[in-house]
Amino acid sequence: xxxxxxxxxxxxxxxxxxxxxxxxxxxxxxxxxxxxxxxxxxxxxxxxxxxxxxxxxxxxxxxxxxxxxxxxxxxxxxxxxxxxxxxxxxxxxxxxxxxxxxxxxxxxxxxxxxxxxxxxxxxxxxxxxxxxxxxxxxxxxxxxxxxxxxxxxxxxxxxxxxxxxxxxxxxxxxxxxxxxxxxxxxxxxxxxxxxxxxxxxxxxxxxxxxxxxxxxxxxxxxxxxxxxxxxxxxxxxxxxxxxxxxxxxxxxxxxxxxxxxxxxxxxxxxxxxxxxxxxxxxxxxxxxxxxxxxxxxxxxxxxxxxxxxxxxxxxxxxxxxxxxxxxxxxxxxxxxxxxxx
Length: 341
Ligand code: PEP
Ligand code: MN
Fold this sequence. Notes:
The protein is α/β, with parallel strands linked by helices.
């Protein structure tokens, strides 16, 4: 739309006390009407503008995330890979990058590249339950960037505040991870969307540990998309534990509910769901069967030398390769939403 055309749309919306939010996608722009968008007269007048390709009424609490929204065909890309196209998408790497042992991370990255992962994860700043546990340092980001340069793989790094967001975006981090603790931090979610408007940066939004209905999760993602970045992946990672033995309550079974409601890819994190490396393959396969588009798995070349969660829940690159093979077998038989539904 030209600025004059946009002004015209805004003028009509303004007459009905509505405003326009521009969402710049990779292939097209969407203009969401904010306010009471159900006014028939406003709709008819907008439909009369021949420069608008489509005007849809989305009766959904999440206008951009809805499977029926104009973003329904939007493809989330990480690096060169379209997430959920042609096979499962895999992110792997350390829970926490040890700044004293850069080689461990670089070795893990090389081994995972060999195995065929699509992106590397690496915790730089860590949200630790105990304030005396290792909290992370910006220096660790250099190690992640070195791994990115050596392998050519995109990297996923968690950010917890706007300062870290700024550093990560400026450094060229490809996937911004929003952790379970910040999944309901609406100010941060808006900032993430705003900071990455029109860019190819993707966001891996973890499900909040205290979130219940799927709508709450989708609405959190809507904040990021409405602020301007549609490249969002939803990441179930377990909720408050109800089963003694699991670290969290595994929630990969939320996947079909999400797939029925939203177009966004679902990338399950089995590592935090179950919290033990020996349960990770089963949770991964279950996630795939439920329709997940991909997995984000903590992996380490030598978990016993890891820090953070790695000693207890990271899998080795060899185990990762087995998980990938099993998931690729499941892929054609996974749950898929009814295309007409
Ligand atoms: C992590 O990915 O290492 C992490 C801290 O995740 P979560 O926010 O899901 O606990
Ligand atoms: Mn972790």
